[in-house]
Amino acid sequence: MAVDYPAIRVAGTYSPPFKPEYSAAELDEMITAVNAARPDVLWVGMTAPKQEKWIFQNLHRLDVKFAGAVGAVFDFYVGKVKRSHPAFQELGLEWLPRLLRQPVRLWRRTFVSAPIFDCCAALLDGGPGFLDFVLSQDLGPLWHHRLQAAGALERLPPATVDALRAARMLAAGAYLPQRRALEQVDQLFSSQGIAYVVMKGAHVRECVYPDPALRPASDMDILIAPQDRRRAAQLLMDHGYTAHLLPNNVSFEATFSRGWCIWICIGRCCGRAAPGWT
Hints:
By secondary structure, the protein is an alpha/beta fold. Among the domains are: 1-82, no CATH class; 175-267, Beta Polymerase, domain 2, CATH 3.30.460. The protein is 48% helix and 13% strand. It is built from ten helices and seven strands. The strands form two sheets. It has a five-stranded mixed sheet with strand order 3-4-7-6-5. It is elongated, with a radius of gyration of 28 Å.
């Protein structure tokens, strides 16, 4: 380091015990050692996300101008651990070879801790403009769900938390009529002996998301055999749905809507429309 940066002065080092959590006495000893050295910059390498949490919880007690979490940078710098190939570095994928070499140790950090940290950082740094973007993309319910599960909401401004919570409650409310629509469709089609398969929608999301706020879908895709499509369409229209015929659409044959949150798309099973529908 002295060769690469001749003007730098290492004020001191401290190696804490390797353990999940530190006692109050251990934290006091660590902070006292740092402040006694009077550094301008503090690099913390304790593995993620412990190091980020340590800085967040103790920054107000540290007499430093800047504190950064660097993880395994020390090991890379002294050559103890080999970095990924430069191609991965240039593509922003340096984490991928490390994950493949140590999947058991790094999978949770990569796919759980890092996204939560990125979400919090983006909301804090992006301000109201970024929050509006998140809400406009209907990501509010998912972000609130993930951040709440990780106990990270307390780090955000109250107004941001309230906006995300409101989006989650609104999404949960939108799911209820979609669930009712699915039940009604099942009753209608079953009573007439019409076989169908739900390919997309709240029903499919119920198999993935336990939280009702994450289940609303933009529409519901239903596959019906060609000989039953006319009867199915008539049943839907008789029960308050409005038909929207789209002859040039290649993915589904007709769309039926009711209200602002229920859209049902009847798809093509054989790649061609039923007679009289186009």
